[in-house]
Specification:
The protein starts with a strand and ends with a strand. The protein contains 10 helices and 18 strands. The protein folds into 2 domains: 224 residues, Rossmann fold; 91 residues, Beta Barrel (OB fold (Dihydrolipoamide Acetyltransferase, E2P)), CATH 2.40.50. Helix 5 packs parallel to helix 6. The strands form 4 sheets. It has a 6-stranded mixed β-sheet, with helices on both faces. The chain has a 5-stranded antiparallel β-sheet with strand order 13-17-14-15-16. The chain is α+β, with helices and mostly antiparallel strands.
């Protein structure tokens, strides 16, 4: 297991602030955050490229002071960092001078990643997707126990992205390793991750099993980052607290009359936006603006107009408390 304890690093005007989390064996951990949130700096710190305050443990051993080459981690950069003077096969086998040969692993890797037919090709003749698979193969062939992936899909053509994502998802169990993957892409994170960490401005705000984090943000800050809509103070629904609640736009019923729901508010239609198969309706309720998604056919039956009085209704079971 990889364990990070109170990692602190100041680099220029930017600071990683006492970050702590752990990655279990053979698990896929995704760090999700906007560009500039410190994800890559944290990845490089774990790899040993920066001197940090705090502790890093791997397999219960303190590796905080070990140089990168002794940590047994594989780092895959956003730009792949392949050796342009070596062909594909020699790039993958570069670690043989330090780790020795393993033909069984090499054959399995090249078959699994579908690169058997390009082993003699020069790096400059590869596509982005091919370069990514070579970089992954090189890292795994070095017998890395943890892969550190820095935005691994950002330079990949969209037509190749799904195939490489499938490869990535299978790596931990197939090759008995753990993965720490940093990205700003929500789709990547939700598909690949077993566990998720949310990074904002050098802080690791929330970690946990991916489904739990995506459905239950611990703060309004995380909820906004994850794209939660309709965020309001709970006093609006009768709670005496400083907490917030969110309601999915798809779980709100808009009607011309009061319906039998747990909560039903009278409001005024502020804006209507027609999309291909639905409408986005914005309704003001006591100076709070609700956003509602309405299926096209349902909306057209209601014949709602701007500035019209309507009711928006939802049930308690659909509320997410933050």
């Amino acid at each position: 297991m990889l364990e990070i304890k109170n990692l602190f690093l100041k680099k220029g005007d930017f600071t990683l602030k006492n970050i702590s989390f752990s990655i279990e064996p053979n698990k896929y951990f995704v760090l999700l955050g906007q560009t500039g949130s410190g994800k890559t700096l944290l990845l490089e710190s774990i790899a040993g490229f920066h001197k940090i305050d705090g502790k890093i443990f791997f397999e219960e051993k303190d590796i905080t002071s070990l140089p990168p080459e002794r940590r047994n981690f594989g780092f895959v950069y956003q730009d792949f960092a392949l050796f342009p003077n070596l062909n594909v096969e020699k790039n993958i086998k570069y670690s043989e001078k330090f780790k020795g040969k393993n033909e069984t692993l090499f054959e399995d890797l090249t078959k699994f990643l579908n690169i058997e037919h390009i082993l003699k090709r020069k790096i400059k003749h590869l596509s982005g997707g091919e370069k990514q698979r070579i970089a992954l193969a090189r890292a795994i062939y070095s017998r890395a126990k943890i892969l550190l992936l820095d935005e691994p899909l950002s330079a990949i053509d969209p037509t190749m992205r799904n195939e490489i994502m499938k490869n990535l998802k299978e790596l931990p169990k197939r090759y008995n390793l753990s993965i720490l993957h940093v990205t700003h892409n929500f789709r990547e994170a939700s598909y690949l991750g077993d566990f998720l960490g949310i990074m904002l401005n050098g802080n690791l705000i929330q970690t946990g099993e991916i489904k739990n984090v995506l459905k239950n943000p611990i703060s309004i800050e995380v909820a906004k980052f994850l794209g939660f809509k309709n965020l309001f103070n709970v006093s609006l629904i009768g709670f005496n607290s400083t907490k917030y609640f969110s309601i999915d736009p798809n779980d709100i019923k808009i009607s011309l009359k009061k319906e039998k729901y747990d909560y039903c508010f009278e409001g005024i239609v502020e804006e209507i936006m027609g999309i291909t198969d639905h409408y986005k309706v914005f309704v003001n309720v006591n100076e709070n603006q609700f956003f509602i998604k309405v299926i096209k056919n349902d909306f057209e039956k209601l014949n709602i107009q701007k500035k019209q009085k309507v009711y928006i209704c939802f049930n308690k079971k659909d509320i997410i408390f933050i």
